[in-house]
Every structure is written in C-alpha cells, then in structure tokens.
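Hi C.,

You asked whether I'd gotten around to modeling the 216-residue construct. I have! Everything is below, sequence then structure, no commentary in between.
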Amino acid sequence: MVFAGVVVMVVLLVVALGTYRGRSSGSEAPRQANAGAPLPTPRWPSAASATATASATARPTVAASASTTPPTPSLSVRPTTPSALSPSGSAQPAAAPPVAASPQVSAPPPAAPAVTGRYRAENAFSGGFIGEVKVSNTSRSRQDWEVRLVFSGGRLVTAWVANDRQGTLRQADGGYTYTGGEALAPGASVLLQFHVERASTSPTTCTVNGTDCSGL
C-alpha cells in the first residue's frame, strides 16, 4: 500500500512539473516584466488524498488477483489402519494348513509261547483232589518243559506224567516245580497229574516255562 502511494505521488509530481514548465514558457515575458513578483507555488496533493487514490488503484488489482488465482485446497492423507475383525465378522483369517500326522509305528505283537499249559481239577474228594496240567508244544522244534504250582495251604503229595517218561518233582519257595523227563516233539502234548491235600482246587500260581496256564 505504501509503495502504491509513493508511485502515485511521483506521477502527480511529474504531471505538475510538466504543467508548470508549460505555463512558464507562455508567460515568460510577463515574468520578466514582473521580476520582483513572487512565483506561484504549485499545490501538492495531500497525503490523505494520495493514500485514497492509491487504495482505489490497488483494490481492483488485488480483487483480480484473488479472482484469477483460486485457493488450492490442502489435502491431509491419513494412513488407514485395518481394524481388527470381530469373531462374528464375515472375513476370517486364513486357517493354517493341516499338519500331516507322522505315522505311528506299533510294536509287533509278542510271539506266541512255544509251550503252553491248561489247568483242570479232575477229581475232588474229602480232604483233597486230583488235578492235572496238559502241557503242549506249539512250536516246530523239540522243547523242554517245566510246570510251577503254588497252592494256598495244604500240600502236594505226589505228581506223575501219564503214559510217558517221568520227571522230577521238587519243593521250593512255597511252591512245587515239576521238570519233564523228556523234551516234547513239535505238536506233542503230555498230561501232568498230581495229588493235593487240604488245599483249594484253584492254585494261586500255575505256569509252564514261565507262561500262565489257561483254565483258571
């Protein structure tokens, strides 16, 4: 605004000087006649009128500048943060691929015993009973055999093998052990019988070569 006012004052000064020079050339003769008369003083525009003129001159320029240069809107870009989906939302996270289970290697079943035994109380009477254990060889080779019997109370009087070579009976560790007198051929069986007094017909232990007897 101050600069515009200065410019206007300079322009007015130039115009006033031009006007003054023109008047001076036209009235040079009278001035020589009246040399002693004071020269007329030009009237300078006041500061208020100069400021008003400058304001009037500058306002259209500012308005035009404002109308020709539209304001540029400022855009603020905010990064979008994905919100967590609720469990009821339609979009679900991708499930992890199933992990293939490693195959389980099962232990092989135990081998069948080569020699088995089956217990039976054959004949019971007052004060005792006659029992038997059938010993069988289920393998493909000859097998030695041994029967272990334990009864609760009472005693085993004697034991024998029916229709075959006899073995040895001995008492040890609260029970009785009978060792066969001859190995069994593949698929062969023998019948061990025994006389027991004042004891239950069901022994607490009956094994053949360490394998439990059946029939109990």
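If it helps when you're writing up: Strands lie at 115-125, 128-137, 146-150, 155-161, 168-172, 175-179, 189-197, 205-208, 211-212.

Thanks,
B.
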